[in-house]
Target: Ribonuclease HII
Amino acid sequence: MPPSSVPPPTHGVERSLRRAGATVVAGVDEVGRGAWAGPVTVGAAVTGLRRPPQGLTDSKLLTPPRRQEMAAELEGWVSSFSLGHAWPEEIDELGMTAALRLAAVRALESLPVRPDAVILDGKHDYLGLPWRVRTVIKGDQSCVAVAAASVLAKVRRDALMAELAPQYAAFAFQDNVGYPSPVHRAALVEHGPTPHHRVSWAYMDALPRWRHLKKTRLPAGGPGTFPEQGLMEASAGAEQGAEQLQITW
Model:
């Protein structure tokens, strides 16, 4: 669907949260969930109630050049913005849900003022307590702060993957940014996974030559723990080491 046919995002959800007592509201969106390589990245944006830049929408609906232009405009427009990454080894260890939470917490805790409400894109609340979360399906299209987070996170993660491209030329990370593609698959068959790949994922089963490198993720906490308990313990332990990995951009 072209951007012109999508209604522009509004501050409607943020206004409702403010009426309920929130003073600082952050929009949160992720990028990289379905990639084979690279981090899953979460952006958190605080925009206030100002008029957004013309053409702001979900990053996936913008062409790469327009997305770059929008990101440059947003940098000077948002009240504050931060990024959090969960790296491939953390995704392999924790699983995607806990990795998303880890990246989101890193982003939110890097903001200069801690938000007292979060608008989270999608229907699943992967943040949970103590965060006050409002999930919004297609929030990256309908909510200004989430759309801003979407664009800024996408542009930054794409840049990170492009920086890896010269070192791993066969994988064409500058084009596929770590997502599945014929070139990416062919490079995996020939060269095997790089240190930036998520090696617990099912695509490894289709690589007979490299299948021995696949990691099997066990419930965190070891035998005898409930899966939910182990997941929370692993996530909390990873958060304790988050400071050196937090990025504000």
